[in-house]
Amino acid sequence: MENVKWIQIGIGFLSGGAFGTLIKQFFDNRRNRIQPIGRNIEIKSFYDSIENKMLNSQVILTGETQEHKFSKLYTGTIKIVNSGLTDYSSFSFGITGSDNVRFVHLKPTTIDRHHIAEISGQPTLENQVNTFDIVIKPFNRKDIYTFDILATTLDGDITHNDIQISSSHAIKWIDLTSTSKIILEIAKESIIAIGPLSIGLRK
User: pTM, whole model, 2 decimals?
Assistant: First the structure.
């Protein structure tokens, strides 16, 4: 009998204006919370002269004015995803490598020509850096920006832990390698309970 009463209350609630007000308040509260931004860093060895001692060779890349030789070269991808509910007209973040890391090339990939990535301190063969900043415009919900990188190391090896992403925005970084964590977090924040009833709000 108790369940029947709750069902009647739930039906009355859903058909009334209070439900619309609650939904609006729900999404307003989510937007006002610290927003999650997804990130993913993948890096792998392209060439390592130590593994080719018998050849005693190096990779040679030609820049604008001269050739550059590398004993170790790594290729990688940095991906940024707006997994929150806030649309940003402009979103800035920085990439910082460990002391032994040098970025020598960066190529952004956007979904169309209306999405722009502006890079400060662009890594090139002539400008090998271990830090640079990026501004992406816009960064709307579910937008994805991908950056292909080429890096070398002065000593040791490079792993994804040697590359850090930071931002001055009030956000919460989410590691995209944990896809289930993102899904569970969205689901957790998208459920409203009415007595024994639960109403899921999925994006």
Answer: 0.72
